[in-house]
From TrEMBL:
Keywords: FAD, Flavoprotein, NADP, Oxidoreductase. PANTHER family: THIOREDOXIN REDUCTASE 1-RELATED-RELATED. It catalyses: 2 reduced [2Fe-2S]-[ferredoxin] + NADP(+) + H(+) = 2 oxidized [2Fe-2S]-[ferredoxin] + NADPH. Homodimer. Its cofactor is FAD. FAD binds at T14, D33, Q41, Y46, A86, F121, D286, T327. It comes from the Bacteria. This is Ferredoxin--NADP reductase. It comes from Aureispira anguillae. GO terms for molecular function: ferredoxin-NADP+ reductase activity; flavin adenine dinucleotide binding; NADP binding. Residues 5-295 form the FAD/NAD(P)-binding domain. Belongs to the ferredoxin--NADP reductase type 2 family. Binds 1 FAD per subunit. Its EC number is 1.18.1.2.
C-alpha cells in the first residue's frame, strides 16, 4: 500500500495547486483521477480555450495553465494514479484513511482532499435515436483540438456559452460553421452573442434559431443532419461534424456513498478550512458548496491554500506552522 501525507482526488487546476501549497509545508501528495491525463476539464474539454481571470495572465489557454501548474509543482515530486476512479475509503485503526481505486490501487494518508471539480461527468446528449452510431465518427461532444476541424463543415448545437464561444473560435478554422439553437434567444454572455451575429453578418458563420437537429444520416461516417424548424417541414443538410454542446451532467460517483454531507450534488464544507463533516476529509474547488460559493479556478486556489494549513495540523499535531514567504526563501527553501 502506497503512503503519503495528502491524497488528492482530482488532478485539475485546484488539485494541482494543492500540491504546491502542501509542498511549501513539506507535505507529500498523491493525486488520483479517473481521467488518463492531468488537467481535469481544462485538458479534457477545452484545452485550447482562453481563460481570462487567472491573476497575472490577461489571457492563457486552459492547456497552458495546466502545463504551468505541472512545472510549478515539479520540485515537490507528487505521485499520480491516473485513469483510476477513487472508489472506497476506510478509516484505519491509527486514524488514517485507506483509499482504494477502481483498479484496486491502495493509498494510505491521514488526510484526503477532494478536488474533483464537477465529480464524474458526462455530456448531455440530444434525444436522437442513432446518435451513438456516429459518436467519434462525425459526432463529438468535446472539442479537444480545434485544428481537427480545419477545412471541415461543422454544425454546433446549443444556446449557452460553450456553443457560442466554440462557434466563434472555429469561424477562422473550419470551412463552414453553422450554429443551431432550438430557441430564438441565446443564454450566453452578451458579448459572445454580439460577436456571433457580427460573424454571421460577415458571412463567416451561419446561425439558425427556432430549430433543432432531430436526425443523423450516413452509411459509415456522419454525412448529413435532419433539421426540424418550428411549425415547418424537416429538411437535411450535408456536413462533416456535428457537435452538440448542451453542457455536462455532473455525478459524484462513489463519493456520494462516503457519508459526507451533500447538497445538490456538491459537498458541504466549513469555510474556515473547507473541511467536511468527516474529520480529515476536505473538499475544495467546484465540488464543494457553501453560502456565497463561486465556481472559479482562482477560488479553488484560495480554498486549497487554507485547506493545506488545516491539514498540516492533522498530519503534524506536535508542530507549529511558521508562515514563510516564497519571495524570501524561494522554492528551494521549503
Amino acid at each position: 500500500m502506497k503512503k503519503t501525507d495528502i491524497i488528492i482526488i482530482g488532478a485539475g487546476p485546484t488539485g494541482l495547486f494543492t500540491v504546491f501549497e502542501a509542498g511549501l509545508l513539506r507535505l507529500k501528495c498523491h493525486l488520483v483521477d479517473s481521467l488518463p491525463q492531468v488537467g481535469g476539464q481544462c485538458s479534457e474539454i477545452y484545452p485550447k480555450k482562453p481563460i481570462y481571470d487567472i491573476p497575472g495572465f490577461p489571457s492563457i489557454l486552459a492547456g497552458d495553465l495546466i502545463d504551468n501548474l505541472m512545472q510549478q509543482i515539479a520540485p515537490f515530486k507528487p505521485e499520480f494514479t491516473l485513469g483510476e476512479r477513487a472508489e472506497e475509503i476506510e478509516r484505519l485503526e491509527d486514524g488514517s484513511f485507506k483509499l482504494t481505486t477502481s483498479h484496486g490501487t491502495e493509498i494510505n494518508a491521514p488526510v484526503i482532499a477532494i478536488a474533483g471539480g464537477l465529480g464524474c461527468f458526462e455530456p448531455r446528449k440530444p434525444p436522437i435515436d442513432n446518435i451513438a452510431k456516429y459518436e467519434n465518427n462525425g459526432v463529438e461532444y468535446i472539442i479537444k483540438d480545434p485544428a481537427f476541424y480545419a477545412n471541415k463543415r461543422v454544425w454546433v448545437a446549443g444556446g449557452g456559452d460553450s456553443a457560442l464561444d466554440w462557434s466563434i473560435h472555429l469561424a477562422d478554422i473550419a470551412q463552414e460553421v453553422t450554429l443551431i439553437h432550438r430557441r430564438n434567444k441565446f443564454r450566453a454572455a452578451p458579448d459572445s452573442v454580439s460577436k456571433a451575429y457580427e460573424l454571421a453578418e460577415a458571412g463567416k458563420i451561419n446561425i439558425i434559431t427556432d430549430a433543432q437537429v432531430v436526425g443523423l444520416n450516413g452509411i459509415q461516417a456522419l454525412e448529413e443532419v435532419v433539421i426540424q424548424p418550428k411549425a415547418k417541414a424537416t429538411y437535411t443538410q450535408q456536413l462533416d461534424h456535428f457537435i452538440p454542446l448542451f453542457g455536462l451532467s455532473p455525478k459524484l460517483g462513489p463519493i456520494a456513498d462516503w457519508k459526507l454531507n451533500i447538497s445538490k450534488n456538491a459537498i458541504e464544507v466549513n469555510t474556515l478550512d473547507y473541511s467536511t463533516n468527516i474529520p480529515g476529509i476536505y473538499a475544495i474547488g467546484d465540488i464543494n458548496t457553501y453560502e456565497g460559493k463561486l465556481k472559479l479556478i482562482l477560488c479553488g486556489f484560495h480554498e486549497a491554500t487554507l485547506m493545506v494549513q488545516s491539514a498540516f495540523k492533522i498530519i503534524h499535531p506536535e508542530k507549529k506552522i511558521t508562515l514563510k514567504y516564497t519571495t524570501v526563501n524561494g522554492i528551494e527553501g521549503f
